[in-house]
Description:
Shape: elongated
Mean pLDDT: 85
Structural class: mainly beta
Amino acid sequence: MVPGAGLEKWTFGVKIMRSKIASKLGRVAGMLCLLTGQASSASIPLLGAQQIGAGAYTTCAVVNGAVQCWGANILAEAAFNGMLYSYFYLSSSPVILPELGGVSKVTVGSEHFCALINGAAKCWGYGDYGSTGPNGASGGSGPVSVPGATSGVTDVSAGGLNTCAIVNQGAICWGDNYFGQLGNSTVASGDYGDYSSTPVAVIGLETNVKKIVVGTTGFPSEGFSGHVCAVVGNIAECWGDNSHGQLGRDTIPATSYDDTAGQVSSLGSGVTDIATGDDHSCAVVNGAAYCWGSNYAGELGSNSVPVGLFSYSQTPVAVQGLQTGVVAIAASSNHSCALVNNDAVHPVKCWGSNGFGELGNGTAASSPVPVNAAFFPALTASNQVTSIATGGQHTCAVIVTSGVARTYCWGDNEAGQLGKSDAPVFNPAPQTVVGPSSNITAIASGTDNWHGCAVVNGGAQCWGSNNSGQLGDGLNVDRSIALGVSALDMSVSQIAAGGNFNCAIVANAAKCWGGGSGGVLGNNSQASQKTPVQVSGLATNVSKIAASGGQIPIVSSGGAASFGGHVCAVVSGGVQCWGENTYGELGNASVATGSGAYSPVPVAVTGISGATDVVVTAGTSCATVNTGVLCWGQRVGNTMYASGSTTPVGPTGLASGVTALAAGHAHLCALQNGVVRCWGENSQGQLGNNDSSGIPSVEPVSVPGLSNATLIAAGGSHTCAVDAGVAKCWGSNINAELGIGTVGGRRLLPAAVKGLDNGIVALAAGTSHTCALLGSSSIKCWGSDFNGQLGDGRYLSAETPQLVNLGETIFSNGFDL
């Protein structure tokens, strides 16, 4: 069906007018938000991006299976975790979106977003005209599943006011249908025409669809029109708006549209990639680049089609100089870019509009032929560009060097879409995007608790249970995403997580916060503190700190321990402890022991010097001294002291060669010459010695099968280690805390954690969850998530590792609801 020209004559004029008005309003709003928003970011690059997508003023990346976005409208009036964020929410550095994990692709439309997650499509944002599907909302929604796209999805693309996906090799679309962009041969009259919030099949594209892209990826004001193109087998087909010949078919007047798919004229076979801008389209055919449609600013790249407001080509034209080596192509409002494999120094080439430097060649001069994006330092054959995306007036690319992926953006930055707040309003050369969660140096998830913490960029961030103020944000509200600890934004070197409290080393001093029962905060009081307080007498020379839950923690219905515990710290080679002393865990025989005994201020452990590390569990403390181990309290690992000791004694067989210690709820482990040795309770197999009897071991026993261990962590009733680079866990799996892909039962021997076989630099274990630090840019956790202790924004337990939402930068300004 091909209607007449009158409709487009009216809409073209409206579109131009709306574009100018919205552009001015957008600039004002963008500048206001930037001025009232967050401060400049640190110059730490965003690492690990696998794929990027870009819209008019927004950029998003998939990083370790999560979605990070920056620029305007990053939360798209969406309700994440029950909170509604306004349309004008801006951030000039990446924000990790809650509730999203396992993502392989993110796509950015004018006012909504979609992601490909484990073979399903989920969309969020402003869902006018059904663009986010029937489960979405016109006023904004969090990520929702799209019926008909819950499995078998291999591609998804969000455009102006509609979305398309490939399901079981067939094409489906939903949302606005004013120009027939749903491709189902139905267009109705009306202000915005017909639309469908439920996906409909594109006629004739029921099989062999390889890729699908929705046009109008540029400005929200231009979401009034739209067209779609797809690679079907090895040919290109397009449908929808044809106001500038963007369907590539000279049989249709360039003032009309077509509501059914049709092959692009003269393009032939051999199509491997396709892209749609606002009013033009491009494709890769047998390694060559071709474009068709509008040539307003030279976006066709042919240098032969006249450039100007009404310049266009209804059939594909060759992009000058790109007839070989093209592997990917991208198109936006008025510019296009290609990725080539035959120019190692200049693999990214762009053409068209360049008023904001979106071509990346260091100038603001538009070009009707491809120019080289000028990276600094210059790229070489050792660099690999793995993803490219074009926004309204900006461009981004992911470049991998020596296995490390860095994201670069260039062009317009008035809303922070380049991901660097201290950049000028625009930048005509590629620059690295600043990352929110880089430079993670320590993690903590202590036993007898349901929260976690990390040291990020020298500050402290915590998530999970907050019943006693242990997250340090001045509140008592549980959080499923990481937030900064009040007044600890620099100089933090370590955090120790107790039952319902935490302690940290800050500029070599000890500070604690949270529940204060039993004197665990060390400030000569039992009062709880929602923000950090100084530990009495420990203002300097503190090098290590450890915290535990209480002997008999009171557990609420939500699973949070409500009081008790003790803390020990290495201070100038000695050890000082405070808090509960039921079994002599403070290590100072002069302090009273027994039920209710405690010290609210640090006391020196008897006879220790040269200590380098310390760990604590309920009733017991241990320290590493000259590569040997000394313990005091209830479970000292020595048959001669089976009933415990109020002063330090050595566990059997651990006099030397020990490089790490770990303490669970009622068991302890040591790493000795690559072998893991554990003692204490064994009811769930947490000692890892294949003993099904559940009988405790007074002395250390070796864990079979681990000969090259480098890291250990002990939780409530489970234990984990990294052996030959692979994470392995054993013990209780009632809450999936082993991360092996199943839930329930126990494992008496080490079992590999799914997906964690390299890059692990630290481990931490809580009562029923576990976390791993991967490099310096991400943390993954698994197991119970009742109080949000996995930190992935979902409050949903996980049988496999999930990315922690670190670096959340939500802030308030005049536009927030």
